[in-house]
Amino acid sequence: MRHTISVIVENKFGVLARVSGLFSSRSYNIDSLTVGETTDPSVSRMTIVVRGDDRVLDQVTKQLDKLVDVIEVTDLPAGSYVGRELVLLKVASESGTRTEILEIANIFRAITIDIGHKSMTLQITGAEEKVSAFIEMMKPFGILELARTGKVAMTRELNDKG
Amino acid sequence: MRHTISVIVENKFGVLARVSGLFSSRSYNIDSLTVGETTDPSVSRMTIVVRGDDRVLDQVTKQLDKLVDVIEVTDLPAGSYVGRELVLLKVASESGTRTEILEIANIFRAITIDIGHKSMTLQITGAEEKVSAFIEMMKPFGILELARTGKVAMTRELNDKG
Q1: Phi/psi at B118 (nearest 5 deg)?
Q2: SS3 assignment, position B157
Q3: Between A8 and which of A71, A119, B21, B129 could a Cys-Cys bridge form, CB atoms 3.0 to 4.6 Å apart?
Q4: Which H or E run includes B32?
Q5: Which of B22, B27, B50, B88 to mutate to test the interface with A (most CBs of A within 10 A)?
């Protein structure tokens, strides 16, 4: 099963390597990972999407919790949080296909952030399914480059503890 | 100096740990890192923002290039690419402050993705300076949670090689 895990860590050398090493040592593949500072620059927040055996994941999160620089580990229950990602996508385009690409982009509320003679770079944000559907729609035009941030997630207020 | 590095890798166990380990072994701190699949699920793309000595970074990128699972390493020259990030931000809000928060959000084109009695969750996307300015404006209301994806980046067509 797929899990979305939020990990709050001290912003120190090597934390990322230790956290990701823990997953790979258990042959647990990471689908996506994002890490960025919080409002306190000494503290970072990671959001990790992993897939695999639930029992093994339970062991991994317990081990994560024991790492010195890990402050908090939360396995977000499906349905309790909002998840979003951002994708940049460079698609082949010329005068003949540009209008069609822009029409599809409008439907998905994607925006154009760069344009040239042979390509356009579009930005789309949303839940994974929406983003994936947009990527599918762009494939026939020819995707030259694709960069996904991976998911960030936050619990809904009504699901917050305390 | 700050650098934005794009790394194309085989999507295999342990690649993330090896790449991030290479930076930390040189005491090179990672400001942000994102990793996600490309259109080919066997290939992932990482965008890494690091800060430190240029000469050391040069050594690190050369070593990265030598790792078995690394396909391509590009140190993106400032000004040659578009960079974007996505941020989710849960801010304390009640009937007295909600309107004011929404007015500021509108100016930054941030959108509301969850609302409750005590808080709102906002989503903002953009270049780092815009995102940081918005976070500053939200601080007086009380930021309860913050999750940044970190930057993804793509070269502009006019700067593409070949």
Answers
A1: -115, -10
A2: helix
A3: A71
A4: strand B30-37
A5: B88
B88 closest CB neighbour out of A84, A139, A145: A84
Query: Do residues A92 and A146 touch, judged by C-beta distance below 8 A?
Result: no
- Whole-complex ipTM: 0.89
- pLDDT at residue number B13: 77
Name the CA radius of gyration of chain B, rounded: 19
Give the whole-angstrom CA distance, residue A58 versus residue B67. Answer: 31
Contact (CB<8Å) B39/A117: no
CA distances from B144 to A48, A63, A77, A157, B118 (A): 20, 26, 20, 11, 10
- Largest alpha-carbon pair distance within chain B? 57
Residue A157 to residue B20, Cβ atoms within 8 A: no
What are the residues whose beta carbons fall under 8 Å from the beta carbon of B146, sequence distance 6 or more?
Answer: A38, A39, A45, B87, B88, B89, B90, B135
Its pTM stands at 0.90
User: Which H helix or E strand runs over A62?
Assistant: helix A54-66
**pLDDT the model gives residue B161:** 61
Report the alpha-carbon distance of residue B47 to residue B150 in Å, rounded.
8
Hunting for tokens 């790449």 — which residue is that?
Answer: B19
Residue of B nearest to A16 (CA): B20
Tokens 């650098």 belong to residue: B3
DSSP string, A112-142: EEEE-SSEEEEEEEE-HHHHHHHHHHHGGG-
Four-point Cα dihedral B161, B86, A54, A8, nearest 10: 110
